[in-house]
Amino acid sequence: MFEKIARGAAALVLTTGAVAAGTATARAGEQGAQQRDYAGCKVGYACMYQSQADWEAGKPSHRWYTYGAHNLSNQVGAKIVFNNQHSGAKIQMCFGYNGADCTGDIVHSWSYKAIDITPVNSVRLFA
Known about the structure:
The chain is of the alpha+beta class. The strands form 2 sheets. It has a 5-stranded antiparallel β-sheet with strand order 1-8-5-2-3.
């Protein structure tokens, strides 16, 4: 039942996010839920999904575990970025490679965001 609720919430947020140019953020599960592996993304990782269908199927296209910059290539359009890190770790989108020219667009622990990844060339994981 938890999975159905979370998937329904994800669909709603993504629909809202598309209308609001990808600015919607949501918790991945119920308020106060124990953090766990979710949508194919293990605890401690940050993951990116190419589509809503990949999110629902638990098939991330990218997985990052270590702090620092992680470069992207050939990524365009709206993607789902899920932060399954813990202890307050965050993900920040950066226009430049190697974590340069980062935006204010941050995904906090145990949440996800629909983001137009087209202008993004790297993601930065940090505490």
